[in-house]
Amino acid sequence: MPQTTTQPHPLAKYADRIDASADYTARQLAALLELSLSSVHMMAGYGWLPGSRMRTPARGGRKYTWTGQQLLRLAGRRIKVQYDHERYAPSTLYRVGCRCPECTAAHNTESRQRRRALAEEKFPEPQRTRLVELVGEGTPVEDAAQEVGVSVGYVFGRATWDAAFADALDDAGWALCVLGESSPACGTAGAYRGNDSKRSPRPPCRGTGCREYKRESSRQTHST
Fold first, then answer.
1. pTM higher than 0.85, yes or no?
2. Separation of CA 95 from chain center
């Protein structure tokens, strides 16, 4: 039998973001709660969002709205929840307290998708393409990132999960090799550090070979 418990309303954590004078559609409510639109529809269907008004847009269909005052009242209530995985979406159950592997995985997936959608808005494909072109022409990654309007941390952060972008950046990064990728010293500690001696100065290398050396060195350090 599903476990029944009472929990604060999912709106409670977001009450300070609710405008009492505004009206909210289901889509706006989903954005407020950081949930999918289908999860909000299920919450409404199971009675967690009573008091909605139905509108018929000019293009047809139905649209449900809630006033900000209604949402604030709901935010102060507790709701009775059954952790019933046959009736409720896992991401919805996570929001009201279930931490089983299925609900946690669903929440993590939604969170990852939301973060990556935001990442795409901030660093869209045309900007990524231009950055890779600049690096391939010999522009340091830091300078290329500044030119397209993002931080260098954002560039390398995306490369940790976007394999296609990481490969393109690595291919372009060979143009930054100080010694050249055919040099025996390419990808060594000395090449990465550079040489600041007056006799034969050489800047630190941030080409692909030396970046690969640094990544591998960091992995070995963290594993010991």
1. no
2. 18
